[in-house]
Amino acid sequence: ILNVEQSPQSLHVQEGDSTNFTCSFPSSNFYALHWYRWETAKSPEALFVMTLNGDEKKKGRISATLNTKEGYSYLYIKGSQPEDSATYLCAFMKTSYDKVIFGPGTSLSVIP
Amino acid sequence: DSGVTQTPKHLITATGQRVTLRCSPRSGDLSVYWYQQSLDQGLQFLIQYYNGEERAKGNILERFSAQQFPDLHSELNLSSLELGDSALYFCASSPSGPNEQFFGPGTRLTVL
């Protein structure tokens, strides 16, 4: 049974704090890992697509790293802002012909 | 706006009924994915179609079926509806490969 886990489940930080979350996935057979940002009452929006071990992606204050050998990815947010408040989801694909498995998400609240 | 459209936005029906949810992918995207989000649950992958053919199957009930038409739009058919089928159903599309998925606004199904 494939299991994708995310930690922590929720996080409350002060504006300006930097934070990071973890996504853990099975380390055998890797095709891709996606990170999505999901704001309340909206649809998930893609942040990063990661396909190679050692990948590091960055978009503004948000960055992500990938370790396929040990089965984890980190998402970092530098200088959190209230507008960063959302649920952050990772999604794992073992092969291109396999199902997409989403983690349960990390809910981030940034307090002004 | 992701470019993915879903209709209807809301649907209220009774147990035992059958409904059809419709999804139009972004122009050029060949893959369509269907997800279910029940109360207090994460995104559950149901099924993926690629260029008209079923590519991957998740935890989709036998009462549910889907198809992708030659114009690449997709329909998810839910029959013999039960109270527990009440959920938000998302459609997402992507180009081929491990690319990010673009999510539609979702269809909120309520079974009374």
Features:
heterodimer, A: 112 residues, mainly beta, 11 strands, 54% strand, B: 112 residues, seven-stranded mixed beta sheet, globular
What do you see in this structure?
The complex is a heterodimer of chains A (112) and B (112). Chain A has 112 residues and is mainly β. Helices cover 0% and strands 54% of the residues of chain A. Chain A has strands spanning 5-7, 10-14, 19-24, 32-38, 45-50, 56-59, 62-67, 72-77, 86-93, 100-102, 106-111. In chain A, the strands form 2 sheets. In chain A, strands 2, 4, 5, 9, 10 and 11 form a 6-stranded mixed β-sheet that branches. A 5-stranded antiparallel β-sheet of chain A has the order 1-3-8-7-6, with no helix packed on it. The termini of chain A are far apart. Chain B is 0% helix and 51% strand. Chain B contains no helices and 11 strands. Chain B has strands spanning 5-7, 10-13, 19-24, 31-37, 44-50, 53-57, 64-68, 74-78, 87-94, 102-103, 107-111. In chain B, the strands form 2 sheets. In chain B, strands 2, 4, 5, 6, 9, 10 and 11 form a 7-stranded mixed β-sheet that branches. In chain B, strands 1-3-8-7 form a 4-stranded antiparallel β-sheet, with no helix packed on it. Chain A binds chain B through residues 31-32, 34, 43-46, 49, 51, 89, 91, 93, 96-105, and chain B through 2, 33, 35, 42-45, 48, 55-58, 90, 92, 97-106.
**DSSP E strands of chain B, number:** 11
Uncertain residue ranges of chain B? none
- Low-confidence spans of chain A: pLDDT under 50, at least 5 residues? none
Radius of gyration of chain B: 13 Å
Distance between the ends of chain A = 41 Å
The coarse silhouette of chain B is globular
Taking the sheet with the most strands of chain A, its summary is: 6 strands, mixed
Strand content of chain A: over 45%
Q: What would you call the structural class of chain A? A: mainly beta
SSE series of chain B: EEEEEEEEEEE
Oligomer kind: heterodimer
Distance between the termini of chain B: 31 Å
The average pLDDT of chain A is 93
What is the molecular shape of chain A? globular
Question: Which two protein chains have the largest interface (Cβ within 8 Å of the partner's Cβ), and how many residues from each?
Answer: A-B, 22 and 24 residues
Number of helices of chain A: 0
Give the fraction of residues assigned to helices of chain A: under 10%
Task: Indicate the percent of residues in helices of chain B.
Answer: under 10%
Structural category of chain B: mainly beta
Major sheet attributes of chain B: 7 strands, mixed
